[in-house]
Amino acid sequence: xxxxxxxxxxxxxxxxxxxxxxAHGLHVKSEWQDGESVARFQPASYHxxxxxxxxxxxxxSLIDCHAMATxxxxxxxxxxxxxxxxxxPRFVTASLQVDYLRxxxxxxxxxxxxxxIEVGERKVVVAVTLHAADAECARGRVVAVRMxxxxxxxxx
Amino acid sequence: xxxxxxxxxxxxxxxxxxxxxxAHGLHVKSEWQDGESVARFQPASYHxxxxxxxxxxxxxSLIDCHAMATxxxxxxxxxxxxxxxxxxPRFVTASLQVDYLRxxxxxxxxxxxxxxIEVGERKVVVAVTLHAADAECARGRVVAVRMxxxxxxxxx
Lengths: 156, 156
Description:
Two copies of one chain form a homodimer. By secondary structure, chain A is α+β, with helices and mostly antiparallel strands. Chain A is 15% helix and 37% strand. Chain A has one helix and eight strands; from the N terminus they run E-E-E-E-H-E-E-E-E. Chain A has one helix at 56-78, and strands at residues 30-33, 36-41, 48-50, 53-54, 91-100, 110-119, 123-132, 135-146. The two termini of chain A are 26 Å apart. The A-B interface holds A 11-12, 14-17, 22-25, 44, 46-53, 55-58, 60-62, 64-65, 90, 92-100, 103, 147-148, 150-151, 153 and B 11-12, 14-17, 22-25, 44, 46-53, 55-58, 60-62, 64-65, 90, 92-100, 103, 147-148, 150-151, 153. Strand 5 (91-100) of chain A pairs antiparallel with strand 5 (91-100) of chain B, so a sheet runs across the interface.
């Protein structure tokens, strides 16, 4: 089984957060596991807010990309497709809410888990948790919508 | 008058989003202007969500750092200090809400404006708008709190 982002069509694989074809990006990868999805990310030493702590904007970015993949996986499951095997549809973020529960230590791998809490035809709402060294450090709630036609390349 | 981030104490100037001492960072700079603060940012070509559009995680990062500076400026003003002249106190993000109103075109400079809508001793709530080419593309609401002592370096 592949990461959900590895199954985005090539035209939509340039996202700075999760696109496999973006040479400068973060390359977030989300694995579908029994109705939830999991991503692991190792921050770089410069991804800091203050010395010793992870930058909140990175946390928001990870939650965002991971939630889009989860929304796609949940939407696929609802229509009989297989997340991690069939092509992943591209969702975009309508709104992103991140609560920073405690300072996130810089060093340990970050683990994001998420689950769709509402799956509509066009809109999926996703809840995300982010842990570092087994402590829950941040929580997200993300509203994802199917990519609007205004964002498609001509002819796509 | 200096950017608010240029007046963070050195120990707190390593933020990936806005620290002047982070060599890899975004270097967001917010100018205090008559009770609001303004930041301008030119995304790189690789800061994309899809070809032609700005990555939402970058937008969240800009809103986050700009809001922390605005919270500090409003807090300074409330206590008689001068934002952009006196040292800027460090706030951290308790929660971040971003609404993506429309796809943000990649190319034009992004302009963020923000204002504190609630100023407490410990907590400041900030509203942010983000425009590209004169269109409002995103809106943020950010809860900032004074940096907790658990995040200070020993002896700071």
